[in-house]
Amino acid sequence: MSRAFVASVVATAVLAAAPARAQVYPDRIEIKSKVRSVLSHTAYQRRDRDDSREQDTERTTRTFRLGSSGSLALGNIAGDITVARGTGSDTTVEIVKTARGRDLADAREQLQLVTVDAVERTGNRAEVKARYPNNDDSRRRGRRGVNVSVAYTVTTPAGTSVSIETISGSVRVTDISGEVSATTISGDVRIAGGRVGTAKTISGTVEVTDAQVDGTLDSSSVSGDVILRRVKARRIEAGSVSGDIKLEDVQADRVSAHTTSASIWMSGPLAKNGHYELKGFSGDVRVVLTGNTGFEVEASSFSGDIRASDFALTSRGRVGSKALNGTYGDGSATLDLSTFSGSIIISKR
């Protein structure tokens, strides 16, 4: 993916989100300004058509003694990042740099232009960060950019807290029970387990499973689905522009889910005094409830149907095929549901 293409993805995402924000999409993508800054100063250049060019690879492994509950920060520009639970108390990071050039000598030269800082700090903390030459350095060397990717494969104790920021690459975190935060621009974010605070991408899918969070889980994509399965949190925020929102067997006191051109699906129990706001524009909104918590519901659709036949609702105002305002049981939870051109369905499981 070329630098120009990555920049165009960011620009398109920002433009697409702007008109929708006033309706259903809050400003959750906070990394776009950082991306502009990084891309304007880095000479990273990746062309998929260069697969036939000469390739050279460099592998190194760093070991950190962070203990069973240390902290690891990973930063990258281009390349996938994989983190998994390991044995023992050490954290190991395998760093694989891959360069493609017009010949082997060119590929080897490019490998030397991209460095990876791996630093262990006091307080059981470590940082690993890829550094690419800036545009001025590349021009002085007669280059338009470098075609180098850097992949991290990490094994670490389960209790490690992991923070990941990258631009072009997918992120996968598995079996980590510490705090986890992951953001990318072009790639998927998939996290299984852990206390997930942030899971965000612009071009890709976000998937979080079997996570338990004391506070807020903030998840979003622009052109991909956001999928949360078996997640417990005090608050869940999920947003997309052109992807589905799927919240399966989630438990939270508050849920805020928004999408523009796709559907929203939520299943699980409601919390007493909980608040659940699901808002779409051109897709269906479906809620499948477990348990017996009562709720108040306010639902509206411009061109779709509203169905809640599984519940004996007491009317509190508007009742019809396009609008519903009613109470079930003690009304302790609140459902705020809306879409423009889709249907709204509330059912029991």
What are the defining features of this structure?
349 residues; mainly beta; 14-stranded mixed β-sheet; 13-stranded mixed β-sheet; 4 helices; 27 strands; disordered N terminus
Walk me through the structure:
By secondary structure, the protein is mainly beta. Among the domains are: 39 residues; 113 residues, no CATH class. Helices cover 13% and strands 46% of the residues. It has 4 helices and 27 strands. The strands form 2 sheets. Strands 5-6-2-8-10-12-14-16-18-20-26-22-25-24 form a 14-stranded mixed beta sheet. A 13-stranded mixed beta sheet has the order 1-4-7-3-9-11-13-15-17-19-21-27-23. Strand 24 and strand 25 form a beta hairpin. The radius of gyration is 23 Å and the shape is elongated.
Average pLDDT over all residues: 86
Strand content: over 45%
Which descriptor suits the 3D outline? elongated
Q: Which runs of at least 5 residues are low in confidence (pLDDT < 50)?
A: 1-33, 36-41, 46-50
The oligomeric state is: single chain
Helix content: 10-25%
Continuous helix count: 4
Which structural category do the helix and sheet elements fall into? Answer: mainly beta
Distance between the termini: 44 Å
CA radius of gyration is: 23 Å
For the biggest β-sheet, the strand order reads 5-6-2-8-10-12-14-16-18-20-26-22-25-24
Largest sheet: 14 strands, mixed
Number of strands: 27
